[in-house]
Amino acid sequence: MLCRLIRVGCLLGAASAWSACGGNAAAPPAPVAAPAGGGPTTPASLTYALSSAGSTQPLPSAGAYGGSVSFPAFDVAPGTTIVATSTAGMPSAVQRAVLRQPASSGSLNVYYAVNFTASRTVTFPGVPGFTVQLPSGAKTGGQQFFYAVSQPSSSPFVAFRTEGPASLSGSTLIFPASTVPLRLDAGVSYTFAFYGTAVTSTPTSLLYATSPDGNYVTAYPATANGDVAPVRVIVGPHTGLNRPAGITHDGAGTIYVANAGSNTITEYPSDADGDVPPLRTIHMPGTLTVLDVAIDAVGAIYAGVSANGPTPVKIVLVYASTASGDATPIRAIDTGAADDVGGIAIDAAGELVVGVNHDIPPPSTRTIDVFAPAANGAALPIRSIAGPNTMLGSLSSVAIGPDGTIYMLDTNGFPMSGVGGFAGNANGNIAPSIVLQGDQTRFRIPVAVAVDADDVLYVANSLSATASEIDVFGPRATGNVAPIRVIAGSHTGLRMGSLMILPRALAYP
Fold first, then answer.
1. 8-state DSSP, 278
2. Minimal CA–CA distance to 297: which of 443, 474, 156, 466?
3. How far apart (Å, rounded) are the C-alpha atoms in residues 348 and 346?
4. Tens digits of per-residue pLDDT, 293-337?
5. What is the pLDDT at residue 311?
6. CB neighbour class for 137 (10 Å; exposed up to 12, middle 13-18, buried from 19)
7. Alpha carbons 245 and 498: distance in angstroms, whole number
8. Cα separation, 473 vs 481, whole angstroms
9. How far apart are CA 425 and CA 180, in angstroms?
């Protein structure tokens, strides 16, 4: 689970166009042997002339570190170069970001960074492969090795993701190339920081469910089946829960809940259990009803709201990572109509995916709009799934799969209630690639959807005013199929609102 989490990638913010992470398909570059004398002999700065045929080049050295980079073959403009410079220390901003990742365990043991600056904007068809030569005697036992890709900037947004873990040959780390596109903007310095971290046991995945009627949040092992009692329950007068609707977590496992009853977002520690007060509370302005919440890789908090009447409002409010109380949003997305949010999520590229239910003024429409990471005001979506072929009905929940698939919960489409799946780059009037619906699914009134790193799908299904269940489906299940597991019964305490997997399919959101 941990390795898959890291592979699918983590992005901080909106400054660059990263794609969702994928598998390591290409062969790794050949290891670079340590030279006689125990350290690399390449200079600390090199200039690569990019070739359409691809090439393997030495990395610039820093202290006893060195290695090689294998650029893939791609269509590159003649004369395009990349200047690579190395340092023996990890930049502090990158180090702080790495320490927030689930893989780090707070202990970094390898410090070597290479800055890449391209003369022209280039988009590699896949992330280059790397080998890194560790110093003689470097600690490798009990370690896993990754590298962080970041874009230092004067803006508050820093693009960030990790790749790995590497395989180890002697004292050489081998990072195979991946098939995920990688864009480097002209003149921008991108840092590839290589590090090692202590191997820790993979944390147990937990499935969280909100109960709007009961004002509590329950957690179950993600492998739960049948009539099982929750392993954690956040409940009590000090919790601040008030008709909890949406729920999500950040990279550290901190839990955020959207409370429709009080129009607040409350935050809890990752191990919250019982009558715990929130770490902080953010109050929504005006008469808005907050229905969902999402967190991006820099910790910015996204609130999906309902217009709650005919007056147009901002459909998504964005708060700074440190916001609390009656904080003012740093951004807000306005559709120009009295629209209701039908679920929000952040994909691996930092883009905001929003289900939009539009009824005022007529005609009623349902769309899945994707906004650029820094979208603000009346920004137009960069992609929009809309039209009769989409078969979208009333939207209520959205989740992003490990391959970027957009899973949308629909309460009266397809042509009946169910889950639809669209490719992450889907656009226009297209049919869903996944349609999960029919009597075998057990769906009565499905209300929320979540997906884990193995593409297992969890659907909250309301059976009556007092009874609910969670139906679990295998990867990319489609059609009229039965769930592989059902969490249901009097001991579960389920009275459904929303769902969350911790950790979920993507390290962020």
1. P
2. 156
3. 7
4. 999 988 899 999 986 666 667 789 999 999 999 999 999 998 877
5. 61
6. exposed
7. 6
8. 9
9. 14
Q: What is the CA radius of gyration of the chain?
A: 23
263 vs 258: CA distance, rounded Å: 7
Contact between 160 and 11 (Cβ < 8 Å): yes
Least confident of 140-144, 212-216, 284-288, 437-441: 140-144
3-state secondary structure 374-401: CCCECCCCCEEECCHHHCCCCEEEEEEC
Contact between 476 and 482 under an 8 Å Cβ cutoff? The reply is no
Q: What's the average model confidence in pLDDT over 128-143?
A: 82
With CA atoms as reference, report the closest residue to 415 among 384, 430, 394: 394
Tokens of 291: 């229905």
Element (H, E) at 191: strand 189-198
Measured from the Cβ of residue 118, the count of other Cβ atoms closer than 10 Å reads 21
| pLDDT confidence of residue 162 | 66
- Which amino acid type is present at position 465? A
Distances (CA, A) of 325 to 171, 258, 322, 372: 51, 14, 10, 27
pTM of the entire predicted model = 0.63
- The reply to whether omega before 509 is within 30° of 0 (cis) is yes
d(C-alpha 368, C-alpha 356), whole Å: 6
- Name the token pair of 208: 């969280």
Provide DSSP, 106-163.
Answer: T-B---EEEEEEESS-EEESSPPEEEEEPPTT---TTEEEEEEEEE--SSS--EEEEE
- Residue 430 Cα to chain centre, angstroms: 24
Percent of the chain with pLDDT over 90: 46
Strand partners, 323: none
pLDDT digits (tens, 9 = 90+) for 248-269: 998 888 999 999 999 999 999 9
| CB within 8 Å of 320: residues ≥ 6 apart | 300, 301, 327, 330
Q: What is the mean pLDDT of the chain?
A: 81
**Ranges of each domain in the chain:** 2-198, 206-502
Residue predicted with more confidence, 345 or 104: 345
C-alpha dihedral sign at 193, 196, 198, 202: positive
Average pLDDT over residues 441-457: 91
* Architecture of the domain delimited by 206-502: 6 Propeller (2.120)
β 457-462/445-451 pair status:
antiparallel
Cis bond leading into 165, ω under 30°? yes
Rounded distance, CA 157 to CA 331, Å? Answer: 14
- Beta-strand ranges (E) seen in 277-415 are 280-283, 289-295, 301-306, 314-319, 331-334, 340-346, 352-358, 365-371, 383-385, 395-400, 406-410
